[in-house]
Amino acid sequence: MTKPLPQGITLGQLNAAVAEIEKVVGKDYVYLDDVKELRSYRDPYNTTDDADFAPSAAVAPQNVEQIQKILAIVNNYKIPVWTISTGKNFAYGGPAPRKPGYIVLDLKLMNKILEVNEKHGYAIVEPGVSYYDLYNYIQEKGLKLWIDCAAPAWGGIVGNTSEHGAGYTPYGDHLLMQCGMQVVLADGTIVETGMDTTANSKTGGLYKYGQGAAIDGLFTQSNFGVITRMGIWLMPEPPGYTPFMITLENEHDLETVTDLSLPLRVNQVIHNAPMTVDLLWESAMSVSRSQYYTGKGPMPDSHRKKMAKDLDLGIWNYYGAVYGPGPMMKNNMDVIRDTFGSIPGAKFHYDDTRKGDPGWDYRVKLMKGTPNMTEFSLLNWIGGGGHINFSPISAADGKSAMRQYEMIRKRSHEYGFDYIGEFLIGWRDQHHIFMLMFDRMSAEEKKRAHDLFAILVDDAAALGYGEYRTHLSFMDQIAGTFSWNDNALWDTHHALKDELDPNGILSPGKQGIWPKNLRGNS
Amino acid sequence: MNKHLLIFASLLFLTACEQQATEPETSPESSAEKATTMVPEASAESTSSYVPSNRSGKVIFALHCAGCHDPGNAHAATKQLALVRGKDLAVIMQRKDLVPDYIKYIVRDGLLEMPPFRPTDINNAELDNLANYIVDSAKAYTPEETK
Fold this sequence. Notes:
The complex is a heterodimer. Chain A is α+β, with helices and mostly antiparallel strands. In chain A, about 30% of the residues lie in helices and about 15% in strands. Chain A is globular and about 70 Å long. In chain B, helix 2 crosses helix 5 and helix 4 (about 100-110) packs across helix 5 (about 125-140). The radius of gyration of chain B is 22 Å and the shape is globular. Classes of the chains: A alpha+beta, B mainly alpha.
């Protein structure tokens, strides 16, 4: 295979830079062989072609000083690096870079848990620490702390948080729970944010904002620096935990359940982010599509209804939990039962009847921060694993939720795909995740999925909705929808980019933020 | 360079915190310079005292494979293999048809629903350990009905 090269870079320049990088990190930590090593840095589930996102090399530094030296080298050659940490980032591009030829800067080997503070409930971790790692550490030490993990638990704290990921315990808004970070800028400068920038800081893990501009967010979903350490708050293990599920019989129940949720959520009667999960998502935890339907196009309603009946699921399945001392949980559950019990056909489910059902069991684990991989069963739905997530933000409002659901379902059916989705109520918003599953062995189907996604971005924008995160393929298109006042926000991003990274070496094109030498060429 | 390591080192025996798999990246004495210095020119010497991990196949399996490949229908790969290959080929730890080279190729390249694993997830020595662990466990496995 011809070595992919970054725009404007010769093979000679790339090889010279790689040789210098090998001296910094050691040859064992520079990955060049396409078959043995580099193939693992592709996104196997993309909707176009692996070559669109093929890196030229990957390098795994082991400490901050090595990162500084690598950045000095690539600044000299003006070769872009694409920073990743741990976890997989599937549905959004995996470890692959935005354009061919970038060198992947893989921080997985920086995997120290630097501190876990049980009294104040926080951890300080390096980018290579996965949810499994932190969970196992806490279990081994017997600390009375919970983590809040992404659904596939091989994700990592720094990666997920900096991608604005969400979890399922009361600490599910990960960036809200982030406290302090260390960042290496493109010129090698190390910056500490928050309280850690004071001498002999004692409060770096406790107070987020320091003094002056709070800049942590600038380094998330962006390319202004390389995050090398992060503080994350951890929830003290509560005295009790009551998870529940409510099955709902009708599609329009989405509207009612969403409207009923908002006051309970913002007043913290329900302590975590409640989720309204569609029938197919939920069924995919137990069965595959072919067990119920082998025809082409979206699964017909008659088959859906049979599946719902067999699996004792609703058209929508609503999950939430309360936490705390027994009497407090009882009070909250009484309010929750009274509220949602008013929906005709609503049925409550608890551990006593659902235990052993993979769909229930993994939600119970997620809502208490126990890492697991059950949600990966979604990849079995049609087989082959091809998927990409369309993730618009909705209001936590019934009509808004229904409008998004109907818009996406209509389009997905028009393009011949199942609607598989869930809504997760953060506080006032909902993350609406539409999992677009396609046969990645079929070029025609991949293209159809790609075309569907592109039109959904435009459809959503026309209704006033934007996405919270996206795949490499659609970063520019979605950046273009955040265009108010003649693209003032992206012009600001670009002004920062040009100042902080004048050679454009850090993750060019990440989330549609391009350095000046590549703007207009994307 | 990294004042946290200084603070951290001084707290090491006072709190529950502990380094994970690797040694501190540099000793506190050698890294006590101010945090905002520019980077020196890349020197010829690697700055790492990094010792590559060599975790056992059992540890790697638990961390990267068990989530999907443990027995039972909560595990995506086991469930899918049961559906498409039959229950006798569903649990990889019980399969006698897998050889180490095949396992190693699939781990790096992925297969259908299974994604590839990077050399930073599982290094080459650990991949050997993993492949041997799976094959040895399968060899030692006796099906229920023949016990």
